[in-house]
Amino acid sequence: MGGSVRIPAAFCGVVGSKPSLGRIPMTILPSVFDNISHFGPLARSVGDAVAFMQAASGASDEDISSVPLDFSAALVADGSIVGKRLALSIDLGYYEVQPQVEAELRAAVERLQRAGAVVDELPMRWTRAVNDQWFDLWCVFMAAFFADRLALHRDRMDPAVVAIIDRGLGMNTTAYKRIELLRTGMWRDLAELFRSYDALLCPTCAVTAPGIADTYDDYVSDSAAGRYRGLDMTCPFNLVPQCPAISVPIGFASDGLPVGLQIVGPPYRDETLLALALRA
Predict the structure, then answer these.
(1) Does residue 131 fall inside a structural domain?
(2) How many domains, in total, are found in the chain?
(3) Which listed site, 117, 145, 205, 264, has its alpha carbon 20 to 30 Å from 76?
(4) What is the pLDDT of residues 88-121, one digit of tens each?
(5) 135-170, pLDDT tens digit by residue?
(6) Does residue 112 fall inside a structural domain?
(7) Residue 174: inside a domain, yes or no?
């Protein structure tokens, strides 16, 4: 629930969309007040993702956070990229991005420009604190909902999951609440950006698909230059969950592995985002 649709989409060369919070009712969690979890499609094409949204979105009493917005496939089909203003950030201010990923992203940007979009590369002031505090939030989520499993199944559970739950159980409640301050700053940055731009472009993942023996812990270090050697660039946008985000395949690195472009939009502008993805 920090990129579980967009990350596999980028690594497998398909489309993956995180709709705005509440566009698709979330009905499988113990709490209906959670605000980081989304249903969204993994699809062969943007058109298939649009069909999924048309079928699945809408308000439901099962989810108090669901929003009463009808999804319009016509808005996606009729949308034009000509004159759209797009902001570009290769690194979100702090990631170390694989050169092949950056090269494919810049090639995709050139295609968007040739199609009539205006793309400006902008500096971002975010830091690794985004990912670190996202992880704290995730650990508390797992502990709150699943810590009761430890008493019965600790020895049979994945040690990584056990460690996450234990970390969540030990989280300082005041520090946990202060994560909202970082999230607020992120939203203010994006709100300022969206006053001038229709969407933000960045990589979906900073690297191509890792080897099967790798673990997430292999992607939480800093380089000698102080850049974050992270795997995905998706979890930041679950900290601002009202903003939709979609991963679109844009090409292949020299090793033959797919690269994904992540497009992030203003809250509840899912149709606009899918229209851009359709033409990316």
Answers:
(1) no
(2) 1
(3) 205
(4) 999 999 999 999 999 999 999 999 999 999 999 9
(5) 999 999 999 999 999 989 999 999 999 999 999 999
(6) yes
(7) no
